[in-house]
Amino acid sequence: MSDTPQHSNEQNGDKLFRWIWRNYLSRFTGFLLLSLVFMIIEGSMLGGLSYIMRPMFDTVFIAGNEGAIRWVALAIFAIFAGRAVAAVGQKITLAYIMQKMAAALRTDLLAHIMRQDGAFHQTHPPGFLIQRVQTDVAAINEGWRALIMGAGRDFITLFVLMGVAISVDWKWTLVALIGAPLVLAPTRLVQKFVRRRAREARDLGAKLATRLDEVFHGIVPVKLNRLEGYQSQRYGALTNKLVKAEVRAQAGSAIVPGMIDIMSGLGFVGVLVYGGSEIIAGEKSVGQFMSFFTAIGFAFEPLRRLGAVSGQWQIAASGIERLRELLETEPSLKSPVSPKPAPKGTPGIELRNVTLSYGDTTVLNGATLTAEAGKTTALVGASGAGKSTVFNLLTRLVDPDSGNATIGGVETRDMSLEDLRGLFSVVSQDAALFDETLRENILLGRTDVSEARLKEVIEAAHVADFLPQLSDGLDTPVGPRGSALSGGQRQRVAIARALLRDTPILLLDEATSALDAKSEAVVQEALERLSKGRTTLVIAHRLSTVRDADKIVVMDAGRVVDEGTHEALLKGDGVYARLHDLQFKTSGQTADKAALERQGLRRGSSARAARGSANRGASSLISRIFSRLSGQ
């Protein structure tokens, strides 16, 4: 997330303008033209008002022509009415354009960010991305609104008013603009300053959003570790930096309008001195002076707003730069140009000599394994052995540095990402739920599921068991990250999702490790139904949950060091046997008892008795899942 060098970030304003026009604003060309018509009407009305000042003073007030009062009054009313109608039409049209553009930009950003791979999300925290999608788009929207109105209404107004002023006396107009060079000279420097400060403020805003995201999601450890003061202090320090950056950006934006005010003062003084002497001498009428003075007076306000547009555009440009950088960031994991079709039926899985590293850390080191179609394969090993990486590899959340991963004989990199991930259902220890209703969390956007099918799924996953406890049944909100449900209830929702997906491959990642015995029994019964007829891969730390798998693959330091059935691996006296000894110690049994079990297995005569004893003492019911699977 580190910033690139300054010179590469500050892209040319014209290029940014063309980019945003080509990709977003151009689709609203018709509405922009309609808005331009309203701007022309509104902008020209002030010119008409300043022009009417001449007959109002010379013909009505000074000459005393009572007949002219009526048409002058009607003209003035028409000017104000026309300006009012045009202003309303312009604001409504612009609001539609800006909101539609912002919605399209936010939608495109979110879709693009979700397509990025894991490495991108490791270096771009959620708060940073939220800042880009929400705050930067809002800044662009305001900048565009100011720019369009400035380039449209204010420029037209200024053009018409200058035309009126010149028609009265071009010399007076030059005198009124005597201070213009004072504005033009420093504008470029101010623009660069504002752009840099705006980028700094956006970066700090992203850090603040990240800090809030981490605090709110980690509120329990914050409380338990008494970190409220520490987190408040860190947030306060970032806020102070943001205040300084925002004030500097706003100060830079205010400089140009301030200089225009100085220019306006010089212009008024010059016109009053130069033009006043001509009126006293009778060379110009009072009506001419009032028409000119009104035009110049009206002109300075749109000129002032046009000066402010420069600063607002720089703020918007800093946001456009960041969003363009995001939208032009290509994911490293893509579907192939000519993808192969996904395998049919229930496929087998194979990894051949796979190596994978994260930076300097090797996670898989020549791993080779096979999971037979329709059978259950368990991955066991110490933490960091590479088990979860195998799941990430199969679903192409990562790609191997070398070696191959195939499903049904088709390499994962040869399938489209959509087809590949459509082969898998995943039930993990952390069942991720959204802050939506229970129904929406099960359906996940699907609209082709009948009520009968939904009822069948929630009963099979034992979701129906806790529905009576919920105030609105399936339409009850589950809270942020499913906080309104217990761990066992969240797992059952995840199983219902998997049943609804009905995919040929099932990945179970410590699906019951965090549950109490009662919840575990219910969840395991649902998992038993889910596993039938599927190629199942299981990650487990508790060996009692995988003893009846068709095959157990033992991993250590990124390698497959052994494989076989539970009994065969215990006879081997290798990594699996040592893990088995350690877990029996932890569960209150001695290593000697575990060793006796292995000795009995080696003798063969007491193998069945040892297994029966272990089964009776194990609390986990997932063994029943695999025993039924192995019996098919």
Overall description:
It contains 23 helices and ten strands. Helix 18 (517-531) packs parallel to helix 23 (622-631) and helix 20 (575-586) crosses helix 21 (591-603). The longest helix is centred in the middle third of the chain and has 53 residues, at 228-280. It starts with 5 loop residues before the first helix and ends with a helix. A six-stranded mixed sheet has the order 6-7-8-3-9-10, sandwiched between helices. It has a four-stranded antiparallel sheet with strand order 2-1-4-5, with helices on one face. The protein has helices spanning 6-9, 13-23, 29-62, 67-115, 118-123, 126-168, 170-176, 180-184, 187-217, 219-224, 228-280, 286-327, 387-394, 417-421, 438-443, 451-460, 487-501, 517-531, 566-572, 575-586, 591-603, 607-617, 622-631, and strands at residues 349-358, 361-371, 376-380, 402-407, 410-411, 424-428, 505-509, 535-539, 551-556, 559-564. It is an alpha/beta fold.
